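Marked as duplicate of an earlier ticket. Keeping the data here for the record.
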Amino acid sequence: MTAEPVNVLLVDDEALVRAGLRAIIDAEPDLTVVDEAADGAEVGPIVSRVRPDVVLMDVRMPAIDGIHATRLLMERHDEPPRILVVTTFENDDYVYEALRAGAHGFLLKRTRPEQIVQAIRTVSRGDSLVFPAAIRQLAAAHRGADGDALAGAGLSEREAEVLRLMAAGLSNGEIAEKLFLGLETVKTHVGNVLTKLGVRDRTQAVIAAYESGFISPG
């Protein structure tokens, strides 16, 4: 049986950008663009109607930007789509705020086509795109002044070790190999970390680790 394609919603105020992304995505047999929007204000109704798996969300738009649109999707949908924000500059504070709002990663507008489709596949599987260098740089400007705010989270020594490796950008498989653990064991540790930190995914966990001072941006 052939698997259902990953349904993608394109949100960008530039028609040329949407056309380019549509051409890249629709050329893949396992991906399909189900709709487009020119502003964040249009996203909510479209998501309710077409139920996309992944949203490619431009960060800067005239009426409702990608940050606000992402936050609304997280608040108003029990099972929101996976969101990849699209930006020109990786060190943009808008990107960081979008990740904090619930986006699962970001793409630069100059990203190569093969990397775009791979990113869509990655987040559609439930994984997050963690970019340690970019997040580290952005987190430095947002770090809290209260020291290690995660101290009260009750992470075990192993869970803390797993969180540090997550922040370094390692996948579950890579963490398992580095710590000589089974993959299911690592998944359990990652799940425990997310639960104890009260976050939705790996990206949120990494942001919390840097902002709290648990991991130094330097």
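See parent ticket for discussion. The domain at 6-129 is CATH 3.40.50.2300 (Rossmann fold).
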